[in-house]
């Protein structure tokens, strides 16, 4: 998928029975390193990165896909001068009604939506695009605060995923009011609250984010125009 905010696929290489994918190089590295070093970002900086990621996810949704793996490690900085970022989409899934195979719980990232955790446990279906909206909320919260919106310890620690699942299913999200102490605006808080709704049906949709006052603030003119008539560039195989 060719898009200004999506890391591009280059080619497939095979060597000694192993297959490798060559992707566009992002010289600035992952956004997670920047967030970790600074323990969170000022709200204007977080919004700038969030706007770019949302535009990338919206493009995928318009193409009929759910990203399924939205996290800071997959947001890559490609231009240090203008701090442009691109989303690396590694687990894009077609369609909105999706499910995960039982037993895959331990492989899920800490940005995963509650319904995916439930699906991994019971095999129930979920809406992948609505799940992406939860992940965007976790992404924004983490950019602002430097940590996940849960009481869990390191995502890689023992039984962490099960612990996070119990927190989510029990409705024990960290109180978003802690963001007030960081000086986060009411508009930003409103968007976070709408994104981090455990009930997928109550969660805001992409169109709600794109029209939200906080998202629109300082958005460069024409920033979303690339999604109005997306073009899919298909490379022809060599003869």
Count of β-strands? 9
Q: What is the CATH architecture descriptor?
A: Orthogonal Bundle
The strand order across the widest sheet is 3-5-6
Arithmetic mean pLDDT: 76
**Percent strand:** 5-15%
Structural class: alpha+beta
In whole angstroms, how far apart are the ends? 22 Å
How many domains? The number is 1
Domain Protein kinase: 1-215
Protein name: Protein kinase domain-containing protein
InterPro entries: Kinase-like_dom_sf, Prot_kinase_dom
Pfam families: Pkinase (PF00069)
Question: What would you say about this model in short?
Answer:
The protein is built from 8 helices and 9 strands. The protein has 239 residues and is an alpha+beta fold. One of its GO terms (biological process) is intracellular signal transduction.
How does this structure look, described?
It comes from Coccomyxa viridis. One of its GO terms (cellular component) is cytoplasm. One of its GO terms (molecular function) is ATP binding. Helix 2 packs antiparallel against helix 4. The chain has a single domain (24-214), classed as Orthogonal Bundle (Transferase(Phosphotransferase), domain 1). The chain contains eight helices and nine strands. The chain has helices at 31-38, 43-62, 114-122, 128-145, 160-169, 186-195, 206-210, 213-216; strands at 9-15, 18-23, 29-30, 65-66, 75-79, 84-87, 93-94, 97-98, 126-127. A three-stranded antiparallel beta sheet has the order 3-5-6. A two-stranded antiparallel ribbon has the order 1-2. A two-stranded antiparallel sheet has the order 4-7. It has 239 residues and is an alpha+beta fold. The model is unreliable at 99-106, 152-159 and 230-239 (pLDDT under 50). The radius of gyration is 18 Å and the shape is globular.
